[in-house]
Amino acid sequence: MKVRSHKQNKVNIVTLGCSKNTVDSEVLLTQLQGNEIAAEHQGESDDFNVVVVNTCGFIENAKQESIETILHYIDEKESGNIEKLFVTGCLSHRYKDDLQKEMPEVDAFFGTMELPSLLENLGADYKKDLLGERRTTTPFHFAYLKISEGCDRPCSFCAIPLMRGKHRSRSIESLVEEAGKLAAKGVKEIMLIAQDSTYYGLDLYGERKLADLMKAIADVEGIEWVRLHYAFPSGFPMDVIDAISEHPNICNYLDIPLQHASDEVLKVMRRGINEQKSRDLISKIRERSPNIAIRTTMMVGHPGETEEEFQKLCQFVKDMRFERLGVFTYSHEDGTHSYTMADDIPEEVKEERAADLMEIQEQISLETNRERIGSVVQVLFDRIEQDHFVGRTEWDSPEVDNEILVPIDNNYMRIGDFRKVKITDASEFDLFGEICEE
Ligand code: SF4
């Protein structure tokens, strides 16, 4: 067995799961570099001697992926390619005791709120003066900003509160300061993320403060796009829509997971809203902000979901014509309220329902995209792919929404540039265009 010794630790941080986990890994990366410990994120070279896997524990597929990743690095350790393996994040928080028994090769497991002791195990001090500083791992021109941690909602299917705890908002001042530092490093677009962004401020200020926060971030010099994710429908604060309408650099974009549209299913899910209120909310938002793109997420196959209730969801999606939609199949998660019910929808039926719903959305997305042909839009360019520049409009968030492709031809452009583009063609999930001379 080949044993490699390292004078100096070199840490590879491997992130799984959502953008909130990405932010946690960025905070860890910043702390390590602040301690002058060599560290990289998703590093591919083979000169690391320490690996930290930041896991996801949300649903079955994600848990499987996390376990496979840990097993991969256990092999790396056993074959002497790495010396130390640490595991943190949601899966580690949720199943720490079991994982420790099943995977003794792992040097240590940490919960989602144990950064200081993880750092100690990596030979680093937890530097409070680095809070609000963040070395980002996304392309330089956009970044995620986690405005709060945890969630107080009782959604019956969701294990997130078990892994992230109660809702804790960060102060507006600390978030504005962090946004300023990100802008100083070239960030132009900020995605506001949380488990439940609309709850922002209730714990800290005793009132909802999301709209105030969005406006404060929008006023940060250099920030050209502010984008809101993970809004909760029940008790939705409409002043958020006013903030979107009144500030040109707050994107006409709203990510608001609705999960379902049948009254019975929404009740069992403990979502605190019903079909009619959901319809009224979406219509009111569109009325106040006609140019908005609404992204939502639906879940199919929740225990007890009948064919009729699923058809109600399909009709709702046809009627509401969301610009962007994602679908999850229900995952039977221990420790959640839904786990007390029978997981009675067969996997193949869940998959069929998810495919049927996405088929409906594909048609809506194609029609919506076609309506943009001939229009001129502002595009932020993220990368070059083969002979195209690839970017997004204000109606598209990175990694989850549509992209716009512009031929390189004789166009000169840098990644991270905003340019005006005339839409010339459209497909289900992409737009095609040409640069408009400014
Ligand atoms: S609001 Fe989101 S994170 Fe919170 S319990 Fe519901 S689904 Fe889970």
Low-confidence stretches: none
The hetero molecules present are: iron/sulfur cluster
Largest sheet, in brief, is:
6 strands, parallel
Gyration radius from CA atoms, angstroms: 22 Å
Find the count of extended strands (DSSP E, 2+ residues): 18
Mean pLDDT: 96
Strand content: 15-25%
Number of helices: 13
Cα end-to-end separation: 62 Å
Using the alpha-carbon principal axes, give the shape: globular
Structural class based on helices, strands and sheet pairing: alpha/beta
Helix percentage: 25-40%
Describe the protein's architecture and organization.
The structure is a single chain. The protein is an alpha/beta fold. The protein has 13 helices and 18 strands. The strands form four sheets. The protein has a six-stranded parallel beta sheet. A hairpin with a 3-residue loop joins strand 17 (418-426) and strand 18 (430-435). The relative contact order is 0.08. The chain binds iron/sulfur cluster.
What descriptive keywords fit this protein?
single chain, 438 residues, alpha/beta, six-stranded parallel sheet, five-stranded parallel sheet, 13 helices, 18 strands, 34% helix, 22% strand, globular, binds iron/sulfur cluster
What's the helix and strand layout?
Layout: E1 10-15, H1 19-34, E2 38-41, E3 50-55, H2 60-78, E4 84-89, H3 90-94, H4 96-102, E5 108-109, H5 115-121, E6 142-146, E7 148-149, H6 160-164, E8 168-169, H7 172-184, E9 189-193, H8 210-218, E10 225-228, H9 239-246, E11 250-255, H10 263-269, H11 275-288, E12 293-300, H12 307-320, E13 324-329, H13 347-370, E14 376-385, E15 388-392, E16 403-407, E17 418-426, E18 430-435
The protein binds iron/sulfur cluster.
